[in-house]
Amino acid sequence: MSQKILKELNKKEEYVEYQYDLTDQSWKTNLPTVTITKSEQITENPKVSVVIANFNNEPYLKRMMDSLVNQTIGIENIQVLFCDDRSTDNSLEIVLPYTEKYPNIEIYALDKNTGGAHGPRNVGLQYIRGEHLVILDADDWYDEKGLEILSNLLDQSKSDIVFGGIVRNQNGRMELFSPAYVDQESIDRPVSELPYEFYNWMGPQGNMVRTSVVLEKNLHFVDQRVADDVTFFYQILRMSGTISQTKQLTIYLNRDDDNISLSKAVNETFIVSWLRALSYLKENYTLDEAMERFMSRRLEWLTLDFALRWDTAYGMSYESVEKLANYISSYLGELPFDPSKYFESQPQKLAWQYLMSGQYETLVNFVAWHTLAPIDKRAELIDDLYYFVPDNHELPKIEIPVRIKGKTAAITNGNLVVEFNLYTHERFNRVEIRNNDKPFERITVNAEKVSDNRYQIIVTSEDYAKLSDGINKFFVILNDYDEHMIAIGDLQQYVTRENVLADFEGVAAINAINAIRAIIKPFAGLQSGTFVAFNSQFDKNGGITVNTSKSKEIPKNVFYHSTREIPKGAKKLSISELSDTYHFSTGIYSAAQTIITFHDAQLKYKRDEIKKGDKFKIFAVEFRKDGSISLFTEFGFIEANQDVYTKLKQTKVTIAKTVYSYAKPDFDVNERGRKLSPGSIVEAVDLAFSEDDRPRYLLQDGSYITEKPEFVILATKKIRKPTAKSKLKRRIKRILED
């Protein structure tokens, strides 16, 4: 009996072994025992149950748990089931305090590790009481309205599963994920209408299901490390027959260092597990066009994105390619449709055809060439489209799906007009502008073709006013879901810090200011230590004009020097809340006790001390990584703490060298005031700053003099200066600490 036939006969045994059978309850009895810890107050009939599988996710748990207890639906309406798979880090120590502070937190500590997320997820399923259910990965987190949005959508529909928006966070970079989930607002949309791109993702993120269908159908997660979640949710999708969708953001998907960990996980077991899942679904659900789309996308993803790669544990060789083809044949048999007809690009179609026709040597040679970096391949423009052309004439030239390069920018009729060249085989759809930190905050702008390969984007002042604060990137949408950014190209010549057009890591973007910022130095009548709302417009030269909420125009260089972005964690606070949280002001101070100074704003490297009673000046403030603030003085950075210093309303300063007073902090030699000779003593009441960021003393009579210590001495005890020996010791210490 051939190996292929043997594999076919053993599939049913594998379905039993890996607990696929929905009529079998043994998956419940095969789970480890658990130790349970709960909040004192527990809601018997919560609206939403949240099952969290955890193993060693300590760094992410506070963010995840905080997102749950702060949901707008209310923690009193949520059942949180934290299922820990015998973690070896401090995961439980992070979560346990939530049971004391909040209601409805339930911890299920497994007494034995199960080797995958399926185990703790199945433990959680045995204790769910909510009307609705979500499965949450421990390193992901919900938008504060996420559960309420999805729960309301389920209530409004007859579907058993609903979908919402996902933002992917990869090492701190935010991007819109799985756009087909949010392509429309829909209620009870037939599964038969879902596009091929919908199946790019089918994990636990961005969906919610009815608990009743899970319990009634004995749905659970199959006993394998991969494909368990997709199998679970696809079955609910097919049982429901319809889905409902919202365009609103619901969840953040964390994928830090995703590529490294995933490449190690792609081995023979990974591939077989996926094929086993696809085989089971193919045999147990109608093989209609919806199933074809789903299976084709999974096969494209499995074989071409993972199996046919050099950097995975599975490896790439003639033998591994042949083995892959045999596995596909053994598990899926002869498919009654051609999956490659759904594939999105020429290389993927070719690779599948080589694999299925047994042209393994050609396939390996093709993948070896195709996976070279673009710079290592020859590109040619043929009939207004670009192709990669191999030196091996036995291999076909490959169309470069998209090539986009910025060309010109101008302000025309009060609009920002940006032109780019587009070379593509695909259908041009539209252009969106998305905020770099908030990709769900996006607008569609007018864009049109102006010549063969030249396109024009028109950004009106009304469009610009809608943009969120910071960098906003252009996205060219081809077909329905294919997204590409515009290479900066010739647009680089229009980019400066003070212009509306920006270069963000080589792609074209727009600068916008539309946020509350901290005033760290007084300017234009704005006092340090206050918080002011700013917005921007673009002028006729393409520059940015900065205004306050009272339409007061601010010089751009002064704005950048004298304001700071507030910490991300504080951006939801109002101006009054910010003022209550942060206290600082530039000026002249006296130390109420000894103050340690540091070389850096993060207060890592000690510098010296300011003794009790000494006077010093605070020039500026810097926000630290943890959201707290450091103050910059002439002796280095200090920690902001109002208990250790007092602001002086006036103090004497001594003139060391001849200086002149001026009526304004921006000195003009033609407008000198009185002459102050060495030895003179005057009363200073505060610090002020010129437009080019130079500090000045504001005197009692309203005039200004320089603050430079070589010209003006602040009456204070002398700060002990470090010796050469002490400097050397500190330098060695810093090197060792790093």
Automatic annotation (TrEMBL):
It comes from the Bacteria. Residues 645-707 form the DUF5776 domain. Residues 49-173 form the Glycosyltransferase 2-like domain. InterPro entries: DUF5776 (IPR044081), Glyco_trans_2-like (IPR001173), Nucleotide-diphossugar_trans (IPR029044). Pfam families: DUF5776, Glycos_transf_2. One of its GO terms (molecular function) is hexosyltransferase activity. CDD domains: Glyco_tranf_GTA_type (cd00761). Gene3D superfamilies: Spore Coat Polysaccharide Biosynthesis Protein SpsA, Chain A. This is Glycosyltransferase 2-like domain-containing protein. It comes from Pseudolactococcus insecticola.
